[in-house]
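Field: sequence (string)
Field: structure_tokens (string)

Example rows 1 and 2, in order.
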Amino acid sequence: MEIKQEAVSRARKNEIDYTAVANSSEFKTLLQEKRKFIVPMSIFFFCFYIALPLMTSYSKVLNTPAIGAITWAWLFAIAQFIMTWALCIIYSRKAESFDKLSDKILQSLEKGRG
């Protein structure tokens, strides 16, 4: 019986108060930083992505030749692939700062337990 109580008390020591974490200023800073980055990037991605079908459907701007027989529509489509890769690279680099903020939160949790 004593072994079971000891295991329960160890488990309680390792419990995380998620409400306290969610209310902490560090966590709110992390969410704010992520939101400041992700929302504008998502809006940009959506607008850039939807522009090609809209412009080819409702205007003739992209149907004009850009380089020889290659039209602006083809260049815009290729640019969408490049934009997607670029956003992935930018996010990967920015995620490092998010990871640092997350590590600070974890460290403060460890200090609080220890």
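Row 2 begins here:
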Amino acid sequence: MTRLDIEPCLGALRRYARVLTRAGQEADDLVQGALLRAYERRATFREGADLRVWLMTILHNHFIDTLRARKSALAREQAWAETTPGFVLPEGEHAARLAQLRRAFLALPADQREALHLMAVEGLSVAEVAAVLAIPAGTVMSRVARARAALRDFENGPAEKPEPTRLRLVRGHDDT
């Protein structure tokens, strides 16, 4: 098999990915995923075909697959949130409070929700969560801290910001 020179196509792939995603980081992830697919399927490239068109097709199909996967994941999350596990539902104010807390938890970004669930509910250590999610331990701690802060803000309301400290001239005159 001949070697495929994809470097001249990267600019066009990035531009098209940004048009599709409208976000820089997402676009880069999309291009990376498409290039991985292209590498895995390099044997399907027909000699003499336009490499740029082939790569753009893979990028587009990867984008569509990603959208479908997100929609499917969202539908599964919503279905899960609407189901009631096999326990007796609490009544009154307690039930309303738990429903609010559940909505707040589900409103967390997916990465924070995953890390917090694995640590707080499943009882995994930081190192174990890092291994499960294939991310550094510091990232796990950061995600859990942000998730806990968001839930704390939900519970207590956002913390008030302190008034800015006024600076005073030590030598000279302070006109204020």
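free_text_note (row 2): The two ends are 77 Å apart (CA to CA).
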